[in-house]
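fyi for ur records
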Amino acid sequence: MGFLTGLSAVLAFRTVPTTILITIIYAAIFSALLITDQLPSVPKRTQGLDFQQAYRDLHEVAARPHPFNSHANVLVRSYILNRVEDIASSYDHVSVDFDLSSNASWASGLLSTNPYAVYYESDNVLVKVEGSDKEYQESGGLLLSAHWDSVSTAPGATDDGMGVVTLLSMVKYFAENRPSRTVVFNINNGEEDGLNGAHAFMEHPWVNITDTFLNLEGAAAGGRPLLFRATSRAPLVSWSTSRPHANVITGDAFSRGFIRSGTDYSVYEQAGLKGLDFAFYRGRSRYHTKYDSIPGMSSDKSKNALWAMMEGTLASSLVLANDVKGKTRTESVGQGSEPVYFDLFGAIMILFTFQTLWIVNIVLLTVGPVILLMLVYFEHIIRVTSRIRSGYYRAVNGDVHFENFMARASADIKYFLKGFWVWSKFWTALLLGVGFQILLVVGYAKLNPFVIHTHPWLVLVSALSLAYLTTVLALTFPLTKHGVVPAPEQQKLSVLLHQYVLTWVLLVYTTSVVPLGRTYFITAWNAVVLLGAVLACVEGMAGARGYEDEEEIASQRHHVRGVRYDAVGTAENGHQDSENGHQRVDVIEETEPTEVTPLIAQHGQPARSSEEQGAIGWWIAQLLVVVPLPVILASHIAVIMLFAMNQTLIDGTSPFGVYGVVSMLALLIVLPLAPFSMNMHRWLNSIVLLIFVLSTLYTYLAFPFSQETPLKVYFAQSVDLDTSRVVTALSGPRQFLSTVIIPRFPSAYNQALDCTDAPDMLGLQTCKWEVGDAFVPSPGGSERYYGQGPMSKWVTTSIKRTGPNSARIKVQGLNTRSCTLQFSGKGVKSFHLSGDGGKGLQGGSEVPEDGLEQIRLWSRDWEKEFEVDVDFAGSEDEKATGRVSCGWAEYESATVGGGRTGGKIPSLEEVLLFLPEWAVVTKSSAALFDAGWGFEI
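which gave:
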């Protein structure tokens, strides 16, 4: 008996064993996830890649901001060109093409709210490493792509300096280790201003060599790079890196429009190539700012981030470039061929098609309920039969003779309410969980919406602890008078069945309404809950302890042939403590004899304790089946989403969306423990309550920004050449912009602020103010106008009507490669530029019926005169109005050490100098300042 008692204390479904095992499982999962989520250190052996040379290259490429429209950009281009030409000079199978002939025009598309078109002239640096297999020298090749330009406010260490130096390393590697298939490198320019370099590459003949691509990008500023998205399943086969980091949820977010930014991947995919997008995604607060630099990261972080990109690129490229059997090119066809993929702890990559997921869903939706209904029915029949044989119903009915009608009716009502609560408590817990999470989200959105920017882990801890409390407290109510949950095995089965219903309904929804690959989590959750419920039913059919109703196990009565005997707990035998596992012993005390008392005394066995019941072993198998896998999958998704979204509020993302996703994922992480939560220790519940209170109070009150995680504000300046009026514009959160930040700037003293809602940036505002002569910018450039030249010479233009509804517009800017035609009266239905060869718009580009509102012009040469013939949409009698302007992106502090031609933007220098340490500036558009003339035709 002592052995069984000890075994029950350790292995039975009781408070202490359950709490310990669940705590170990969650702690192990979270610890493993956090450890494997760290950046890998640079190994001593770098698999044939010259890491030290790559790191030296990064110092050259990311020495200073180098946007397309800057002379620093030309310096970086020259460095890259010299590097690849030096490599190619030693190998006959390596060739370089400095592309100064391709140009392209395309339109934004019919669905664009502000339709525009682009004309761009290439200066891409292209490298071709000819494959050793003649069959794949002119076709079936691999395209590796990255862009060397940065934005005007960032040196671009991660966006996309690390991608560029990785490609330089790969040029050297493939030159020394010739691949089977030809590899083309598109080290392109102009990506930041509209994916321009990728569009221009589509006009180059080398594009016809390739059918698969790998694009390297920086969609944030460091951390662990992620396989952002994939066009199809076949190229994913190549993702065999030793530390895979990938999840289909990011690809679904792009395809559904939840992520609005773009990379060169979009251009290649639209052209019909198959491939992958590999990018940094963490640290959006430092993205496109001065902190996206080598000094902006610690030495170890910058080196480790660079190695992570190099290692992943090498592993995938080797497979794609040497696949002579076509495994990475052979695609599944038809509906459902989209890939579903995710990694587990950075150790293994899971990959299958959506069609496979759909088939599994259908099987689970149809077969699962049938199996479970049969088992539940058999379990119920076996339990009822057991009760009949034990005399339970006779005993209960015998009590009727000793109870009045009202007492019996009251007992029946009590029994009904207790049964109703047992079968509804899971849904009550779910509703409470959702309701309180909504309140938590509203609290964050109203009281401190940006706190997740700096404290994402605390926000997640707050949501997790709240989800735990609402789940556990609802499912453990009510307790017996001894402080334990009655019939725990029966309640566990009840919760498992209701959890299965929930996952089944979700599976129906994700299969029929939202057929997306990211719903693989629901499939896995439904499958393990089904298996856990099957085990629980088998446990019940086996007669395991803990399935008895409270009347069977908690009654202090003993019946012999319809006569009641009372079981009394004796003091000498002690009282069981529900928390320490001791066993309470009851003795039978006979009542006063009556006329129905048997003549010969009949002694039965003592009734079992009512304090803690639970079968030995069964629950462990069920917990290991039901809990770990859903928690692992949901936790992986939570980490990716948390760090992909936590700093997007400063870009105009809704706080309700960000905090809502965190709360939803917190519920999904906690809900798998619901069937076992009734046995969680009260001390653990108290600790979690304390964690919730402290984390929530802190995150509601903490200041949301720091120097490590700064607030981004968006700068732009505009010069009206008609009036010589210069206006500075700054965009940011209304809570800080006009009241805290702008009053710091001398140029804004005693100036009227015009603050309005920022276009396309939810929750942000744009404030404008006119500045004086000391803050007038200068384009720099030629010796004649070096410094502060006459504004009228910055942009020269002529406009001439060439037909009833057409015109020719000429524009030239001083010391710039970028000009813009803006149309506000009526749109442009077609256009062409002098010298573009009459190619027209690229395939897939369409102009909306109302015409284009803007034409963006980019030249490879400085101070080029653009000559544009336009045909207007609309009536011939209607006037065409608009603005002709050019833009600039050079300023003094960004040209230290190279690229200086006299460009100045005093207002930007003022912002850089006077911003608080917890804020940083970034560009609002391609041009830091523009200058233009209005026109009317």
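The CA atoms of residues 180 and 325 lie 11 Å apart. thats all i got for now
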